[in-house]
Amino acid sequence: MRGYQVSVAHAALVAACMAGSAHAQTQASAVDTSAAATVAAGAAAAQSAGKMAQDDGEIVVTTTAQKRFENIQNVPLPVQVLTAEQLEAQGVRNFQDLTKVAPSLVIRPAEHPVNANVSLRGVGTFAFGIGVESSVAVTVDGVPLAFQARAFTDLPDVAQIEVLRGPQSTLYGKAASAGLIKIMTVQPTKDFHLKVNTTVTTDDEYGANFSATGPINEDLGYVVSASYSNWGGNVRNVYNGKDVNGRETLNARGKLNWEASSDVKFRLSANYLNGNTTVGRPFIALADGALLRNTAGQTAAVTMPGVTPGPLNQQVSNDYPSRTKYWGWGSMLRTDIKLGKLSVLGLTSYDKFRLDDYLDHDDTASPTIKNLQIGAFKSRLFTQEVRLLSPDDEAFRYALGVYYADVAFQRPFLRGPAFSPADWYATSGSRQVAAFGQIDWEFIRHLTATVGGRAQNERVKYTFRDNIAKGSWAGHASDNATTYRLGLSYQATPDIMVFGNYATGYKGQTYDLTTGFNTARANLGPIRPETSKDKEIGIRTQFFNRRMTFNVTYFDTNYTDLQAQTIETINGTSNFRLTNVGGLNTKGLEFETAARVTRDLTLSGSATYLDATYTSFPAAPCFPTQTVAQGCIQGPPNYQNLTGTRAVQAPEWKGSANIDYAPAITDKLNGVVQASWQYTSSLYYVSRDPQTFQPAFSIFNLNLGVRDHKRRWEGVLFVNNLFDKQYYPSLINSDGNFGNKLATQAVLPRDFRRYAGVRFGLNY
Fold first, then answer.
1. What is the DSSP letter of 514?
2. Which segments within 317-419 are labelled E, that is strand?
3. Contact residues for 667 (Cβ-Cβ < 8 A; gap 6+)
4. How far is CA 203 from the centre of its chain?
5. How does DSSP assign 621-647, residue by residue?
6. Interatomic CA distance for residues 608 and 179, integer angstroms
7. Residues whose CB falls within 8 Å of the CB of residue 328, separated by 6 or more in sequence, listed in order
8. Above pLDDT 90, what percent of the chain?
9. pTM higher than 0.85 for the full model?
10. pLDDT digits over 697-718, tens only?
11. pLDDT for res 487
12. Which candidate, 455, 446, 454, places its Cα nearest to that of 485?
């Protein structure tokens, strides 16, 4: 489906094993082929799309996965599309909540966003350092984020989010070796539109956001948006009586669109972010008689008075306020030029971000053992991209581009004084130059071949100064890499398309800039790049006059030179460090389905079956207290062989199902009944460690309300975690801090306990 397209409300049908699909509500011209502009959906467009959906019931989902505006049923890639309306209906207001609605995506939170893990199909970054790239890239309006922690905030002015699964290195670069999350925000419109949302909950969360878009004159358009949210948290610090594990965030964004002529357009945008989080990791298990640092007298009654460890514990006792404070700003200039039938797109961006972290490292209120961890993360990113795009409606189509990026990081770090002392300062930088392209050629009617490639050069550098060991090191390296994608798709009928792809991925070389960096690490040079080879076969189908869709994708991906934590012995000295540990294979099936059952009823669902296994990981660290019987091989150093073991953060089944029912109450009012089910099968957060094992769980959410039949306003009462099911999105084995006796901590999710709230929206 090419040319002028309108997508409609989400809909999907799901079997018991399936989970959350998505839809798009977007109106755009095929001439405007950029990722950002194609999701410009203002309120009028959304209302128009909704009316068309009511008239004919056809489901049309749009995506920009191939840097073009396309019907997702015609795109031979595994991609999930999430709209602002669907995110609201399922209670997704923060980046890490995306794990609830994207079945191939798992986001593991941590004490602060820098240590959080984002994985797709069981592949992510499980090591921490300023030089280490994420395996899952995040872009906003087509521009990458240098620092994944930058994404861990509210989603206030989202028009559409796309989750691209599997290696996306050819079109999106080296930080997308496992996949990509594309966030696209509201764009200027020709008419004035105002959208306002407010939320208040029973556990004292409150927030509001707005976006206003419209014309200044016939050549100038604008967007102004802002949001604020505040939640104290669901953990009580009994030491001072304050709530923790909460957050406060302020976002602001502005855009100015200038149509210099019918063939030349400019869009200037700027954004600002300011926020903070509080940290509280309750002990959910603690052995009787466990002593902090195995020190006499440091019992639980002394170090955490008033706290009773257990599975439902929501209390901590910290005598230092663990927290983060972050702020950042960025700008982007987008240029669109038409050259006859061709289009030229330019994206120039600059981003700056800082996060300060303060952690009570002993996690107690011990009067004698006090250990703090204090540091900062600072990032700066400049990018320039230029693309040449052929028309969308021709049999031979191409997208060609060049890309430049310059990124710099700084990390001062201090820990002590009681134990594990550290005091160092590190910098890391990289410069990347790349050329990329993709050709789609319908060489036989309905049969299209795809060839894509990317060639890049990257230079990386670092400095490291250890203020305790009185040592300083510096280094640099350069690397050339190519990735490619080959594909074939066949449009068997207007409603059935099958495809197959073979693609390679690449994650760049890096230095392990963490505590313990020394001459031995420096002499080894950078860690080798991580590469992947991916095979995919899929089918896209629609039935019943396109009122129902059903899509299935099979994938099989092999990762080589996997970058992860291991143990290395150099000149008789054992080091826990990031290195190339071996390989990983991830394969499985992804299901997505959508159905508009009646005029007022839509059902949706999607699910992922995943088999992710380490094919080579011969020297992984043992977890604390791991015995020989549990697979710990005695050293020195002690290690375990994880070859053949299931990857961490990789549930076998994950998915969700959704119901949206909006019956007419009067000629001007519709009811709102929305229900969602989210399921995750069991998984480990650390391989084989029983203290980090999360059993399978299901979460149910319910929304009830009323709305204007044109969706100009909506009021909804919602209940999240309806049946009050407890689960843990992150578990920490802290045995080593308690004399190798049982000590398990957890990061509690937002919906650890059932809570309710009211959401009101205005769409004018």
1. S
2. 323-339, 342-360, 371-389, 396-417
3. 709
4. 26
5. EPPTT--TTTTPBPSSSPEE--TTPBP
6. 15
7. 150, 272, 273, 351, 352, 353, 354
8. 71
9. yes
10. 999 999 999 999 989 999 999 9
11. 96
12. 454
